[in-house]
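Our platform keeps sequence and structure together, in a single record for each protein. This encoding replaces a full spatial description with a residue-level series of whole-number codes. We quote a single record here, exactly as it is kept in our systems:
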Amino acid sequence: MPTSRQFLLSSRPEGELSDDDLELREVELPELGEGEIRARTTWMSVDPTIRIWMSDIPQYMPPIAIGEVVRSIGVAEVEASTHPGFAVGDQVSTMIGWQTRIQGKPEALGCMKLPEGTDPGMFLATVGPTSGMTAYFGLFDIGEPKPGETVVVDAAAGAVGSLVGQLAKLHGCRAVGIAGGPEKCAYVTEELGFDACIDYKNEDVGAGLDRACPDGIDVCFENVGGPIFDEILLRMNNFGRVSLCGMVSGYNRAGEQLPGPYQFPMVLMRRLKVQGFIILDYADRYAEAAAKLGAWVAQGKLESRLHVREGFESLPDALRELVGGKSAKIGKMVVRF
């Protein structure tokens, strides 16, 4: 009888995720019913929002319930099927969760079949909902950049930020990143083609923005929050746009009263549009984004690095590294099973 190993949320994390907040179990899977598939997880996307889902706070979807499999997106390979539209060997992507197998009707599971020959890791990094699609809709639909404008993105060496800058350049904009450390900044400018990158660990961010954005900032793609966001707000141009994707600097402090942004009055003074968004808002347009992103990847115009951790049991450490602010990672955090 096939089995699935699972990480369940056993308690709400206080601060950083602890191993005591998780329960590891193995369950037997029943025989396949009519129109069902069983798929073995091969790759898992590790995203900051997983930490938010673990907290019982107001958010954009119900938090992970105590005793529920930790929620996350991944790729799995079909190993058994009674469904006419899915064959053994097909790759599918869906909200798999932290488990080694999924089983059920693919429609109910929300499975999207990947084109034959797709590299699953690079799919998660460049096209997947929590990376490429987030960058695409957040920049173009919310940020509304115009050729010649200046786009600033923080966490610029990460999964989403690295793509935002490349998409801005493809659109004819000046792309300025903010990242931590010389290696990340070199990656952003030399490999990805950003016009400039500010090393927030080794230089004054405000002075760096003054140097890199002499004509001010038209679009801010915000991933971090905190003092960096304040420095950006001070330099936004009139009628600029802020695409609010994440506030990762506070995710391990979920439920606390966090200050800021201290420069929120600039929203009024500069008549800014500030809009948060969630990728689920664009579910009916995933095909549009996938087609465009896939074409840019095929043409060599869009790239990403993978930061790979090995093995199912490495998932908790991967999330701690990603959200804890200690990561030296460049690119998309994934776990290969």
Remarks:
- The chain has eleven helices and 15 strands.
- The chain has two domains: 3-118+305-336, 129-280.
- The mean pLDDT is 94.
